[in-house]
Write a structure and sequence with these properties.
The structure is a homodimer of 220-residue chains.
Chain A (H helix, E strand, L loop, with lengths): L1 H24 L6 H8 L3 H7 L3 H13 L10 H18 L1 H11 L9 H20 L9 H23 L4 H12 L6 H4 L8 H10 L10
Helix pairs in contact in A: 1-2, 1-4, 1-6, 4-6, 5-6, 5-7, 5-9, 5-11, 7-8, 8-9
């Protein structure tokens, strides 16, 4: 068991190091030797867990697909908002999340299916929107599938722009602006009036989660 | 004059070749020798116009900043919609435009100011939104600056997602969806009812422009 825990820990440090390097250099300029140096592990240890740079990228992208569930809220649309606000906050503070999203956006990532992380993110939002629809939270014309795609696409571009213009300092505000413009076209007025879409929503939510250790922070 | 025209033509072919290579490989994997081969020009000709790969990238990004003006419409918000729909159409059909946007989104582009194309795009949209505001087309709470940033950011992400999921086949539809969700939070109802945000808007508009040769298609 101690040995298994150590292996999980080593795998995690390699992924964190790979994420740092992918995040700083982009995929194609990243080298295994820089990842090795950053992780402080032997070549043997790295190749025990990951066969190649591609395999490392897959491991990093995978992180995003398995993030922990968020606490249930009074409305499904608040949970939808929370997904965006939490991701905005984690992008600012967690290199693993940053690299995971960065790889999906990186044109130089050839041979890897960059569609998988997009589809996983779209599916998660679509599920929430379908639940919102069945609870009567959506305006009648709203199509959960196309709305989920629009939100995922918009989010992904706004985070690149925020990275370029402010090193993601203003990401919370920018995602809050997006939600303020889009939600009135999605939500019934009664639900809209209850939504917390403030730019510090992600930070506040994460602080609550940190007091409930069983729900967050466990490595995959 | 004939010599100058040839020089402009050569510069243009080099930029088109560079755009193709950047678009296919991403910035960091692109090589000068592949661009040379693609352009069918001598090394001397290329270095006469561009000092380095960075300089080529600047030239390609610059294209986006100097695209031709679109025809005036009855409302400034229709002109705003047209900017997005035309860009969606050009992204599908013009490698130069594709590479120009791609470079702004490419994390591996180090040492170049990727903020410039974003700011130029934001400025253009903000100008249209300010004009729309002064014509009474906007809802009272709308802030032209943050709205322009939100639209530019959303657009840029949706085009990456469309590229990943459908090789941009569905880009017109996706931008039309974005506009349908966002414009009701920007436009007065009376103007909203007049807006043409259909997914083939860009194509139709470009067809009109092609019959007015003085307005379009002149290289910079």
């Amino acid at each position: 068991m101690a040995q298994q825990a150590r292996a999980i820990q080593t795998r995690r440090s390699i992924l964190v190091a790979a994420a740092d390097v992918f995040d700083e250099r982009g995929y194609s300029s990243a080298t295994i030797s820089e990842i090795l140096a950053r992780a402080g592990v032997t070549k043997g240890a790295l190749y025990f867990h990951f066969a190649s740079k591609e395999d490392l990228a897959l491991g990093v992208m995978d992180i995003q697909l398995h993030s922990d569930p968020l606490p249930p809220q009074l409305t499904k649309l608040q949970e939808l908002v929370d997904q965006g606000m939490i991701l905005a906050h984690r992008l600012r503070h967690e290199p693993l999340v940053r690299a995971s999203v960065g790889l999906a956006m990186d044109q130089a990532v050839e041979g890897l299916d960059r569609g998988t992380p997009f589809r996983a993110w779209i599916d998660r939002l679509e599920l929430l929107l379908r639940a919102a629809k069945s609870q009567g939270e959506l305006l009648p014309h709203v199509d959960p599938g196309e709305t989920a795609e629009m939100l995922a696409g918009s989010f992904s571009g706004i985070q690149v722009m925020s990275q370029v213009l402010s090193n993601r300092e203003d990401l919370g505000r920018r995602i809050s602006v997006l939600l303020h413009y889009v939600l009135p076209s999605i939500s019934t007025p009664a639900v809209l009036a209850t939504l917390d879409m403030a730019e510090d929503r992600g930070e506040r939510l994460l602080r609550t989660l940190e007091t409930v250790p069983s729900q967050v922070g466990t490595p995959n």
